[in-house]
Amino acid sequence: MAPRSILVINPNSTASITDSLKQMLEPLVPADTILSFFTGPPAAPKSINDNETSARSADACLPALIPLLPHHAGFVVACYSEHSLVPLLRQYTKKPVVGIFEASITHALLLKGTSGWGIVTTGKIWEDLLSIGVGNFVGEDGNGFEGVESTGLNADELHSVGHDEVKKKIGDAVVRLIGRGDVRVICLGCAGMAGLDDAVTKALEPLGKSVYIIDGVKAGVMQVDSLIRSGYGDEI
């Protein structure tokens, strides 16, 4: 087994999302880190749009993932939510298992300084679900959390709707989020938004505003890679 083999898990069944993650991540990791990718089986939903589809995706993916655990040193669950695969996989392995939701929040807290941070996500239902998740992870005060703004698109629509429309909807959500307060960090709240940092930057140009943009998938992979390099990639 490669000492730094990381499995990036897309728990929905949309292969185009996995392909976009692969294209973005492979050039970023060190040469001695090997990335492998998993797409949810056909029984998994095409898009995770709420708690019900999240639970369905976990049920569909877990049996296929358990046999893969011995072959990798760490795991990234690439769904921006309190996805149940994270705690479930931790029941079967002591190796690092990180969800992109918690990875991006950790990065945001380290970068925000005395300012605020927020999330731009897909469907409106995630505004409440992610806000609850932030409270569960960092406490009710949110540590500078300014909230969640949504695009109205589902994860799979980020790859089926026209690129210009996707960027416009992300940009509109960014402007609304910036209007909430002194936002210094914006988290991209969907794995399907990977590589869409430029939509945030373009939306902020007319406002003369710059922020840190956190891609949760990048954050998750870098966290797991760091944990493995620190010696936490072996069973204890």
Report the sheet-strand fraction. Answer: 15-25%
CATH class of the largest domain: Alpha Beta
Q: Number of helical segments?
A: 8
Distance between the termini: 17 Å
SS-based class: alpha/beta
* Annotation, overall tally of beta strands: 8
Largest sheet: spatial strand order = 2-1-3-4
Radius of gyration: 17 Å
Largest sheet: 4 strands, parallel
Measured as a percent range, the helix fraction is 40-55%
What is the CATH fold-level name of the largest domain?
Rossmann fold
Mass-distribution shape? globular
Provide the residue-averaged pLDDT: 90
Low-confidence stretches: none
Can you tell me the CATH architecture of the largest domain?
3-Layer(aba) Sandwich
* The number of domains: 2
- Along the chain, the helix and strand elements come as EHEHEHEHEHEHEHEH
